[in-house]
Specification:
With 140 residues, the chain is an alpha+beta fold. Helices cover 28% and strands 31% of the residues. A hairpin with an 8-residue loop joins β1 and β2.
């Protein structure tokens, strides 16, 4: 009979581990890939010379706010990438990451313009890099 409360306590504590599938490595890989694909699309929308997602060479460094760690919540990511003229560009994004591995990213600042851009032909287009969503696999 004494074993039942001890077993229940052990099971309850097992649920309090620091493990989370929401890690900086998973977020960094996902945001770099999503960002690269969006750059490829964005340059065609605004009339710049084509650039492939592979040529963007995006990488990211992400940390959980306020003190690092893992798990869902607020994150900040710095994305370093190669711009259309071959220059190295650095941009910061604020992220909210859900427990399902999906995130909402928004540009921290105006380095990539506002939510609307003007194309070379005068059209206005949505700035895909201003705010975007993405997801990553939390099961592997």
């Amino acid at each position: 009979m004494r074993a039942v409360p001890a077993l229940a306590a052990a099971l309850a504590l097992a649920g309090c581990s620091n493990y989370s599938p929401i890690t900086s490595a998973r977020i960094e890989k996902s945001i770099a890939s999503t960002f690269s694909n969006l750059v490829e699309t964005q340059v065609s929308w605004v009339g710049l010379p084509p650039i492939t997602a592979a040529e963007v060479k995006a990488s990211a460094r992400c940390i959980k706010l306020p003190t690092g760690g893992v798990g869902s919540g607020e994150w900040v990511c710095t994305v370093i990438w190669m711009g259309p003229q071959g220059q190295s560009v650095r941009d910061a994004f604020d992220l909210f990451v859900g427990t399902d591995g999906c995130y909402m990213a928004s540009l921290a600042g105006e380095s990539l313009g506002g939510p609307i851009l003007q194309a070379k032909d005068g059209r206005t287009v949505r700035n895909l890099l201003y705010a975007f969503d993405g997801c990553f696999d939390t099961t592997t």
